[in-house]
Structure formats: structure tokens, C-alpha cells
Amino acid sequence: MACTNCSTGAKDGTPRGCKNNGTCGTDSCNKLTVFDWLGNMNLPNGETPFDCVEVRFKNGRKEFYRNHENLTLSIGDVVATEVSPGHDIGIVTLTGELVKIQMKKKNVDYNSTEIPKIYRKATQKDIDIWSEARDKEEPMKVRARELAIALNLEMKISDIEFQGDGSKAIFYYTANDRVDFRQLIKDFAKEFSIRIEMRQVGFRQEASRLGGIGSCGRELCCSTWLTDFRSVNTSAARYQQLSLNPQKLAGQCGKLKCCLNYELDTYLDALKDFPDFETKLQTEKGDAICQKQDIFKGLMWFAYTDNFAVWHMLNIEQVKEIIAENKQKRKVSALEDYATEVISEAKIDFNNAMGQESLTRFDQPKKKKKNNKKRNHSRDRKQNSDNKNENKK
User: Fold this and answer.
1) Domains of the chain as residue ranges with CATH
2) Is the pLDDT confidence value at 385 over 90?
3) Phi–psi pair at 279, nearest 5 degrees
4) Could you tell me where the DSSP H helices lie in 177-233?
5) Is residue 1's pLDDT more than 50?
6) Collapsing DSSP states into helix, strand and coil, what is residue 82?
7) Is the CB of residue 91 less than 8 Å from the CB of residue 78?
8) Which of 46, 150, 192, 298 lies 20 to 30 Å from 124, alpha-carbon distance?
């Protein structure tokens, strides 16, 4: 989502930024930008261009519109689109045959008569009104939160999106339970003198709209490339043998991290060859219970029920062999007969190319340098006094 146009710095070194908050004409800070690889190709003779275009609005919201007026549109053009009531302002992100593919992907019938249309290319007056409305969103959000707190409503106003003509504003909010905001809408209409629409979003959708930096140091997946939100359960953490620490497993939305599902299928495939974790091994020394397992190395650690401090490492083939003996009502002698030795891996020391191995080299106190000037000065004075004594003699 980095925008090269926003990264240019001013004279004092601070980033200048386009201050368009995701609505710049270059489309560089857009989520899931589609490259029009058919843009330089000419249509066959007799073929007309596809009459629908894709238009983007605030926070990456995209809609499809029909070009009834046969306007010459290209990516980055600012257009006035049809809404009820009034009109909205958006930026064209895709034209041509790729729009048809995107509409099929999102299950939108391009032959439908209900697709809204594009009125015109935005004039300078339309763009000025749109920019003024966008500048009002942040202070309005602060005031809206104050009004919601005054009414003791358990909700959070996360974002505000103005319509292009400035006649309507959509208030996005999150809440755990159902909220009666009828009085709040009246207060908003009295305070801001515009049409109000309240739209509830989930906590994941809120994080996707606002963005941020995750614990991995990268931008949030939901705000960069992730489009669908699948349910994440604590069982995903259990299968991957992660500690059930809510502070580490929860993302900025307060829910379990979506990345817990990324490697879950790999772990489930590896666990198919493993015996059940609750399996007990019967030996002559006593029963043994599984304490730990390494999924990708195929190892399991067992401990006797009367001595949980000592663990014995076994391969899954050895565990299956013991289970087969137990099914025939035969006990093995002891786990020590099957335990495998741990092979210590050779440690590799990595040296910095600059030879700066110590990370705390700057924390060490500097040694005080001796004052050579005073020492040299005293030595010169002594020599001068000796020379004077010799001259007197």
C-alpha cells in the first residue's frame, strides 16, 4: 500500500503526503489494485467496448457502474456516479473486458438493469465540494463520539464517509449488542444538518478499514490483501501447539488472528499419521501418558504416571508398535527400551561482516582518557628547571 507520490519529502525532511487518504488518482495506495493487462490491446473489428466500469470510493470500497453516455474513461478519472438521493464522487479503477471478469467473480449480473450509471466526469466544482466534505470527516467523528458518550451508548463510531455531493454521511460503528440509536440520529441531524445513515460493521471490518501494524511488523492482512474473513477458533491454536494466551493470539480487532488459519491445513495433514494425543501406553513399569509431540519431526514424549518429571522421546512408529502390543493385551517391558537418543545439532556461529559481534558494545562505559597535556606540561617544566640549574653552575 505504499504510494511513491506520498513518500516525497519536504525541505525539512518530513514526508509531504498527498493527504487524499486513499483517493489519489495514481491508485497506488489502493487495496488489491488490478493491473489492466488488456489496456494496450485493440478490440476486433465490429466489437464495442464493455459499457461497465469499476469505481472506487473511500477505504477501498468498489462498485460497478454502467457508462450510458459512452464517455471516454480511463483509470484515474474522477467521475460523478448515481446514488439515491444525489450523486457520489469516485475514481475509476478498471475499464474494459477485465470489468466483466471482476463482475463474474463477485456474482454481479452485467445484463441487469439495476446497475447504477455514471452521470459525467467530475467538474472542478464537484471535486471542490467533495474535498470540503472529506475535510469535515475527522472533526465530525470526534464530535459524534462525544454525542454517543453523552447518551451512554455502548458503541464506537469508527469512521465517517461523506457522499460526494456533501448531502449525506454514513456513520460506521461497532457494538457488541444491539443499540437503540434513534435519539442519537436526531442529535446528529441537529448538530451536522445533513442526512444520516448508521451502518454497523464487525470488529474485523473495522480493523480492515482503519489499518495498522500487526505484531509481525507488517501491515494488517485485512487492510492490504485479505478480502474474506473466515471464522478462527481456538482449536486452530491447539492443533499448532500454541499457548492459549489471548494477548498473543488476538489481533488489533480483539478477535483471534486470521493468520492462525494459514498453516492449519499443513498441521492437520501432518497429524493424520500421529496416534491420538490421549493415548496411554501400558508397560510393566506402569502406564505412560503423552506430554508433548513434535509434529514435523514425528516425535512424541511420554512420562510415567508416577514420575512426570522424566520424559522419554519416541518415534511415532515406535508408539504405534507399543499400541499394537497393548491391543493384543501384552505389555512392553519399559519405555527406556524404545527411547531414542537426542542428536545434538552443530551450532553455527554467524559473524557480522563489519566485525561487530557484540550488540551491547555501545552500552559499555567509555574508558577515561588520561590527560596527556598536563603530563607533558609538567615534564616540560621539570626540564626547564634542570636547564636553569645547569646554567647557574
Assistant:
1) 18-120 (no CATH), 136-201 (3.30.300.20), 208-270 (no CATH), 280-337 (no CATH)
2) no
3) -65, 135
4) 182-192, 203-210, 221-224
5) no
6) strand
7) yes
8) 192
